[in-house]
């Protein structure tokens, strides 16, 4: 979606910036931009990057890196504008503003924009383009409800509930890559061990089950292994809710009724499924003991986008 904007600036000799809050997303986008714009000089900037002194016609950076620029870019694209650390950080807002040339343009991107921006768009105070469909023109996967015990109850009993086992078996049988989101970092490793204990029941080898979080020093390596399918089930936190595209993915969100998972977070996690044209449908499961307003709102938002896409004739 952003490639035509970038191309319009680059073909006229201008400079373009794509900024995103997280290093993981920068590393995800870098090879895709390199493939799309092989003839343009590029700089990829994040904490620890070897290119920190590089300048390019096309710059991809974490939002903290914008502090180093002054009126440098004709086009500034801020991706995931509602994500930490960009969201509510006035210093980063200022940095994003000052790095654009006075004659340049800024475009803000998000699947879940903050309420004040949504309100401004509705009142015509902010120019807005709403895109309700992915490039492959299939509906967004609508989450299904799994009424199951909490993660802590599963860990105490050292047992997976049958409903969860059946859903996981279905995803495994269709050779999907499986995201399993949990609320807390401390739950990742114990739940990995529980899944490995049930590997035979799931008809997988224990070594293809792993976990990662913000505290994991080799998180990037594990995401690469997940993409390359040497890991098939990845237990993780919201650190991977954005920017990671894994073909043929299914998503399981456990303890979906946890207050840490608001509607925006649930929409983002659900968005890991159905991203590829080879497997546009995917499956998303909300696993929880209770049904919350956040879950209802997330499903309502996804259905609303599908309805809009259908009404506007975007869907195949």
TrEMBL record:
Keywords: ATP-binding, DNA-binding, Nucleotide-binding. InterPro entries: Helicase_ATP-bd, Helicase_C-like, P-loop_NTPase. GO terms for molecular function: 3'-5' DNA helicase activity; ATP binding; DNA binding. Residues 1-131 form the Helicase ATP-binding domain. Pfam families: Helicase_C. The keyword ATP-binding applies. SUPFAM superfamilies: P-loop containing nucleoside triphosphate hydrolases. Residues 167-316 form the Helicase C-terminal domain. GO terms for biological process: DNA recombination; DNA replication initiation; double-strand break repair. PANTHER family: COMF OPERON PROTEIN 1, PRIMOSOMAL PROTEIN N. This is Uncharacterized protein.
């Amino acid at each position: 979606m952003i490639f035509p904007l970038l191309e319009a600036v680059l073909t006229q000799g201008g400079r373009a910036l794509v900024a995103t809050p997280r290093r993981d997303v920068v590393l995800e986008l870098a090879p895709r931009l390199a493939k799309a714009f092989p003839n343009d000089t590029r700089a990829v900037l994040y904490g620890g990057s070897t290119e920190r002194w590089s300048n390019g016609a096309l710059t991809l950076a974490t939002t903290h890196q914008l502090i180093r620029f002054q009126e440098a870019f004709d086009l500034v694209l801020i991706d995931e504008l509602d994500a930490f650390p960009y969201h509510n950080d006035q210093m980063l807002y200022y940095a994003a503003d000052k790095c654009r040339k006075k004659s340049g343009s800024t475009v803000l991107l998000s699947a879940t924009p903050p309420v004040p921006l949504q309100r401004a768009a509705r009142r015509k105070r902010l120019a807005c383009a709403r895109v309700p469909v992915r490039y492959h023109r299939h509906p967004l996967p609508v989450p299904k409800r799994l009424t199951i015990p909490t993660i802590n109850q599963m860990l105490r009993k050292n047992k997976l509930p049958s409903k969860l086992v059946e859903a996981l078996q279905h995803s495994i049988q269709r050779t999907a890559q499986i995201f399993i989101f949990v609320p807390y970092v401390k739950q990742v490793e114990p739940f990995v061990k529980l899944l490995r204990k049930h590997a035979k029941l799931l008809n997988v080898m224990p070594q293809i089950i792993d976990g990662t979080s913000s505290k994991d020093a080799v998180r990037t390596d594990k995401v690469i292994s997940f993409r390359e399918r040497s890991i098939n089930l990845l237990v993780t936190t919201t650190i991977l809710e954005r920017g990671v595209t894994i073909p043929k993915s299914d998503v399981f969100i456990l303890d979906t009724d946890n207050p840490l998972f608001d509607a925006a977070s649930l929409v983002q996690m659900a968005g890991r499924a159905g991203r590829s044209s080879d497997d546009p449908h995917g499956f998303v499961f909300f696993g929880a003991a209770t049904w919350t307003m956040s879950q209802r709102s997330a499903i309502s938002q996804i259905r609303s986008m599908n309805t809009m896409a259908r009404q506007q004739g975007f869907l195949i």
